[in-house]
Structure formats: C-alpha cells, structure tokens
Amino acid sequence: MNSAVITAVFNSIAPVEWLLPLAVALSGLVSAALYLRKRQQINAALVLVAGLALALTLAGLRLPAGAAAPLTIQSDAATAVTAAQLSRVAAASEIDLRGDGLRDAEWRDVPARPLQWAPKAADLLWLDFPRTLALGRQFTLTVRRGAAQAGWRLQLLAENHQILADSGVATAVSTTQRVQWLPPVAEAMVLQARLLDQAGKVIAQGPVPLQVKDALPLQVRGLFDAASFDARSLNQLLVDGGALVEWNVTLGKAVSRNEVAREPLSAPNLLFADAAYIEHLAPAARSALLAQVRQGVPLVILGGNAADAALWQREFGLPLQAQSATTEKEDMRQFALAGTQLALAPAPWNPAQSAGGWSVLARDDRKQPWLWQHAMQRGRMLWLGVTDWHRYAISAPQALAAWWQLALDEMALPSAGKLAWQLDDPMPLAGLRTEACVQGAAAGAMLQVQGQAQLPLQYRRDKADAACAALWPAQAGWLPMTLSATQAPEQERLYVFASSDWPAWQRALRRDATARYAARYTPAQAQASMEGGATGAPAPVPVAALLPVAPAGLLCIACMLVLWWREQFSPAATGSHKAEPV
Prior knowledge:
Layout (H helix, E strand, L loop, with lengths): L2 H9 L7 H19 L3 H19 L2 E3 L6 E4 L8 H5 L7 E4 L5 H4 L7 E3 L7 E4 L3 E3 L4 E11 L3 E5 L5 E4 L7 E8 L6 E9 L5 E12 L5 E6 L4 H12 L3 E7 L5 E4 L10 E5 H6 L2 H12 L4 E4 L6 H8 L3 E3 L10 E5 L2 E7 L2 E3 L7 E5 L5 E8 L2 E6 L1 E2 L4 H4 L1 H15 L8 E3 L11 E6 L6 E4 L5 E2 L1 E2 L6 E6 L5 E7 L8 E5 L6 H18 L2 H8 L12 E3 L3 H21 L1 H4 L8
Helix pairs in contact: 2-3, 3-14
C-alpha cells in the first residue's frame, strides 16, 4: 500500500470522528493488558481482536476503489485503446501508461487520475499551417522538430510533386524551418511537405491539406488630390484582387478622373485618400468625411504628399515630423515576402514618437513603424508612412501583392460572412472522434456529413457563440460538410488523415495531449474530490469500505461470545493463577 493510498485512508473521515474509534481501541488494549497480567493469553487475544474490530466498524474507513490495482494502458499496441479499457479509468486509483500516450479525443471524457508515465526519447515533429485560406493570402508552413539539428531543409511540393517552395539548408543548429507560397487559384488541394537531412535523404513526408477560397470583395473608395504612380499601382492591385473600386483623382484645377465600380458599392469598408486631399478639403466636406469614418469605415491616408503639419496637429491631434534626407537609406522599411526583399522609402512626414491618441499598428522586419492608427468611435484613421511601392509593380509583383495583402488585412474591416466554421483539431484521423463547430448557426441547425446521418449542433461554454457536433470519419480524404436546409448552402471540407500519415507528428500530438491530461490531476483536486469538491473540480473518485461493516461487527460479537463462554463454563481457564501450597 503506497503513501497515496494511506493518505486517502486517513483522509476518508474527519479528525473529530476518530475520537470514538480510538476510545474503543484503547479500551480493548487496556482489557487485554489486564488479562495478560493474569496470564490469560487467549482471553487477552479475544478482547483485543473484539476491540479492534469494533473500532474499525465505528470508523468506517474509505479509500479509492481499486487502489490496489492500478490500470495499465499500452498506448502503442496495434489494436490501440478500446472504449471498454477507457471506461475502467474511473474505477482506477492511477494509470500506468506505456508508450506515447493517447489523443485529446480519447482523454477528453476520462476523469483525472494520477498518471505514471515515462515516454522514451523519439523523433518528434509539429506542423503549423492554415487549413483554409482566402485567395491572395500567402500560405505559410512551419515545421518544428523536437531536437535542434543543422543542415536539414523543408520543401513544399504540389500534388504532382513539383517543388513549390524550399526553405534552404539550415546553416545553424535550429529546430524550426518555414516555407511560404502564394496560391494562384481557389480550389481544394492536398500538397506534400518533405523534410530532408544534410545528405538529402528524406526524413519525413506527408500530406498538407489546403482549401483556397474566393474572398468576399472589398468595397473601396479612393479620393486623391493629385495623380501619382503609387495611386495608380494601388488601383491596379485592388482591381486585380477583385475589389469593387470607385476612384476619384484630381488631374487639374477643374479636371478630375472618375472610375466607377463594376457594381454599386452597397457598404464601403475602406476609404483611401492622400494627405493633400485631406488638407485641401473645405471644413464642411472634411467634417462629412470624418462623420463617415466615425460610423465604422476606416480611412487610410497616404502620407507621401503631406505638406501642412500644422493642420494635422490642429484638426487630428497628429504631430508630424519631417524625415531627414541624410538618414533616408537607414530608415528604409524592409519586408521579406515571397522570396523578395522590399525596401520602401518612408514618407517625407511621419507621426512623431509621442503622437497623442495615435499608436503604431504595424512594423517592418527591423521593427520600424510604417502604419499608425487613431480610433474614432466605431471607425479609425490610419496613416501609411511609406511611398514609392510602384517600383516593385514590375520587378517583384508577387512580393508587392503580398505586402499589400498584409497591409489590407490590418486596415480593412472584415467582410461580413454568414457562417464561420471552426475546425480546431490539428490532425483528424480516420476512426477517431473529432468535432466541427459553426459560429453563427441558427438554433436547431443540423450538420450533414457525407455518408453519415444528420448530427445536431449543440452550444458549448468553451466555444463562444459556436455550436458543435462530434463525428467519427470513416476514411481518409476530404469530408464535405453542410448545414441543414434552414441555413445558407455554405459547404466546408474537413481533411481526414490516414493512420500512417506523419507518424512523428502523431507521436508529438499524443504526448502533448497526455501531458495536458496529467496536469489535470493535482493533490488539491484529489482532496477536493474526496471532500465533495467545488464547482469545476474533477469528478468524485468512487469509494468503497476498507473493511466491510458486517464482517467486522460479526467478528466483534463472536469474540465477545467466546470470552463470555470461557468465563461462564470454563472457570479453570479463566480463574486467577495461584501457587499450590507446599
């Protein structure tokens, strides 16, 4: 019996309840001592056993059920772990785990128990990548290894095994490698990731599922006081990206160029204006524009042609400072995107370090600020402090598009979508439970999974405003899912991995899930469970009597009856020992 069991035994009753059993046991000891004084060993033994049995009966000791037989789980067995074996965890005092552990889906419904587990050293991998991406966004795959090594590399392969991106050889000892790729079309694809060692030998390779979807188009208005190559380049990028654009550029004193969107702008979610346009607006027109911003439409100011620093300080509380021409090269904003280094010149006037009410929203690779913002009720104003990006429209169009996509993600309001799918399982496996959650689903909605019956969506406390359903995929591959007919016909796909995919990643996920399960059980939680627990404590541990009450009571009665019989019908055995006369 280990120390945990002994502690559980003595903690099973309150200290005050020990008084009566201790008094009974002490009485038994005193009576036994008196019998031994008279050299009546049998009677002493009878009264001692009767006293102890009565004391145990009154104490009612309890300890966790099955404490003498911990549950052993072989997690690396070929047949895996059965549901029947997991159901026995509730009746076990502790778990003796062999192997790499279990997945989150297997630990989730198991009550917390002490875990004896010593995993062996093994090669581990962690993959991090988005499963769903809007067209125009850059896909980033990050692979982390359990042990740092030098000379290894990461490659991203297309479905035809053509190399899409290569991280290059790790020159220093590192645990992480990263590749980036810009998907050209919107479709569901299963890419491949491959890790190579210093000699070019494949360490690990497996599928990387990705869904590229058409993004909801931005609705953009552009207001410019003067034509510029930067504004023209930005216009072309927005149009190529599918945005609805209304563009107004002043070409002369009474001449302007207007570009009308292909569809009417129902709800503009982004305004662009150069600094000169804001400076030359009449006060009434400026107030009308700011009123629109306060209603929730972000206003992005291109600071390249700012000239009236006093106006910005007076009207917007934005202190501007001139950029020194002698430090322009040192102040170039640097961005490494799509395998290209972008160096963008700072605007001639940029916000000062202590800009009241204005804060830095984005910094470049060298931690220099290039985008500032100022909240205005439901909206905000933004100051874009870089210029001359049009130089990369021909030499590095992909890198420029990637930079503007990052900028737009920071600037624009998110487009209103009807539903938001949440698929948080990093690696759904065939035959193992996973879950799908939908944010914005109507009450009573049903989840329709291909090849399965409809599943009801249920709200959960740990998922804010999201309804979830559990499912067990039968085979590997894409699994289409839709909501019931009461919802908009919006489909989502869940990629299910095969049991042979990424064994090192599976091993790492199992070890992470097992470590989280082990952290659920603490001595404080064990004490709370024994005493009834507080809200949120682990499930109470089943208890059983250490000695059944009836046998202990019967043993006490039997000993007392034998003692009474010996004193009544065997006086020679119970009489005082006297020395015979000489």
